[in-house]
From TrEMBL:
The keyword Transmembrane helix belongs to this UniProt entry's keyword annotation: yes
Domain of life: Bacteria
Record flagged with keyword ATP-binding: no
InterPro entries: DUF5687 (IPR043742)
Keywords, in A-Z order: Membrane, Transmembrane, Transmembrane helix
Protein name per UniProt: DUF5687 family protein
Pfam families xrefs: DUF5687
Transmembrane segments annotated in the record for this chain: 21-51, 63-82, 103-129, 141-162, 169-189, 201-226, 280-298, 310-335, 356-375, 381-405, 417-441, 447-469
């Protein structure tokens, strides 16, 4: 049955009208996956030497066993953002005379055939064969490696259940952020060492098979948990995204004060909440508000005299993260209904102004959410204030200007990870002004006068941009209007 389903999937792909395009994209992704896996394997070959350099004087096996928890925390994070759910084929399978549980089991097993599930093997097999097998023997090495692999595969099955149950919800985001903070953050801040949790388990695995048997039971148990959940909810209306309609359709009253542009900003907000890809950007914006913790607490970036220049980029990133991510595909979000705005007298102009209003409002929320960074000093708050003003006064126009260069259509219901719909050369070129723009204003005043003069110049430049908002925004509005038919034609093309 498993091979029958694979055959059906192959025939479906082969008969698709976009087979050539899909085959090219698939071939490219396979090449990238093999390239990355080769890097992982070579890292595994030199893992022993790397540990000797990092932990000079310590036993490499004990050091690795204590550090495995960080590998699993990292694995939890990248699986959450990259690992795909196996429910996409249910629409074409549930009507077949095949037992529902069998279909789910086949989809589950097919999901296991993934490059993600061989990373642990490629990374730790060479070290185990070179170091652990020599010290404790072949049986101890097999038991240790088996425990490690079963732990990794348990995360795979758990993620299939977790993402289907909590993906795109605030609970899921809270769990991921909590895992990051309690896992890596606790050790980094010196609260407690989470590595001590798993170290005894893997040390025991080298002397007995009990840990590998326990992990086998855990892995099977989590697999059954995921299978039973999918079987219980294996109905198209249940496996589709469940929304709280009252929340999705709730308007932001503040926007109603800005006329038609405000109403369209409200519609844009509802679009963000309703669709998978845009909602992912919103959640990532909340997640990246923690970006400053990696810089403001790191002695490497501290400056004994004045402010560290890298903090300017951190401030731009924190206060403008949503605008930077979401704004790079400015009109692509509306590719499905752009003709509607085109058919209205002031539709395009109101759409653009509504997006401006939304970007600036969410940037304000990001700035307010970053105020607690004042704990690291009043200078950090001043940096965030200056960069916020520069973002909403200047950078928003720059980002939109680049985003309007040959915008491409996109499917809003697809995830954001490894999805390049709507992405073009402009989305890469915008990195240049994002990185260099603030420093063009800040550095001359900082070097000639003082760091605070640089922040003042940055903030004043942003205020001038806010005062001149109408003519600056009109430049991008006119650009959309002059290219509206070309943009509309590109949006009608098949994805």
């Amino acid at each position: 049955m498993f091979f029958t389903l694979l055959r059906l999937q192959f025939l479906k792909s082969f008969r698709s009208t976009s087979f050539a395009k899909s085959a090219l994209a698939t071939g490219f992704m396979i090449f990238i996956a093999l390239l990355l896996l080769s890097y992982v394997f070579f890292a595994g070959l030199f893992l022993g030497r790397i540990i000797e350099l990092i932990a000079e004087g310590r036993d490499p096996i004990e050091f690795l066993n204590a550090g495995l928890i960080f590998f699993f925390l990292f694995e939890f994070m990248y699986r959450y953002f990259i690992q795909k759910l196996p429910v996409v084929e249910l629409e074409s399978l549930l009507h077949l005379p095949i037992g529902k549980r069998r279909i789910i089991q086949m989809l589950m097993l097919r999901s296991f055939i993934s490059p993600l599930n061989v990373i642990a093997l490629l990374l730790f097999l060479p070290f185990g064969a070179q170091v652990i097998a020599e010290k404790v023997g072949t049986l101890g090495f097999i038991s240790w490696l088996g425990t490690l692999l079963l732990f990794s595969w348990s995360i795979h099955w758990f993620m299939l259940w977790f993402k289907q149950r909590f993906e795109d919800t605030w609970i899921g985001l809270a769990v991921v952020m909590g895992t990051l903070l309690l896992g890596g953050g606790s050790t980094y801040m010196g609260w407690f060492n989470v590595g001590e949790i798993l170290e005894p388990i893997f040390a025991l695995a080298m002397n007995t098979v009990i840990p590998v048997l326990v992990m086998l039971v855990v892995c099977i148990g989590i697999y059954l948990l995921a299978v039973n959940y999918y079987v219980k909810n294996a109905y198209l209306e249940d496996l589709s995204e469940e929304e709280d309609i009252r929340f999705v359709n709730q308007s932001v009253g503040f926007f109603s004060r800005f006329g038609v542009a405000g109403e369209l900003a409200n519609l844009e907000w509802k679009l963000i909440i309703r669709h998978k890809k845009s909602r992912t950007y919103l959640m990532l914006s909340a997640f990246f508000l923690l970006y400053g913790l990696f810089f403001y607490t790191n002695p490497q970036y501290q400056s004994e005299e004045g402010l560290s220049p890298i903090f300017i980029f951190v401030g731009v990133f924190i206060t403008g993260i949503f605008m930077i991510q979401y704004g790079q595909q400015f009109l692509s979000w509306n590719s499905g209904n752009f003709d509607f705005f085109l058919s209205r007298k002031t539709g395009v102009e109101s759409l653009v102004r509504g997006k401006y209003l939304l970007f600036m409002s969410i940037s304000m929320v990001c700035f307010l959410a970053s105020v607690p960074y004042v704990y690291f000093g009043i200078d950090i708050l001043l940096i965030h204030l200056a960069t916020f003003l520069f973002n909403v006064g200047i950078m928003v126009h720059v980002i939109i200007y680049f985003a309007l260069w040959k915008p491409k259509p996109m499917d809003l219901n697809k995830g954001a990870m490894f999805n390049y719909e709507g992405v073009g050369a402009a989305q890469f070129l915008v990195i240049i002004p994002l990185m260099g723009g603030p420093y063009l204003i800040y550095l001359p005043f900082s070097l000639l006068i003082s760091d605070y003069a640089g922040l003042l110049a940055l903030g004043i430049t942003g205020l001038i941009g806010l005062i001149a908002f109408k003519p600056l925004s009109q430049l991008n509005i006119n650009r959309v209007l002059s290219n509206r038919y070309e943009i509309s034609s590109s949006f009608r093309q098949e994805l």
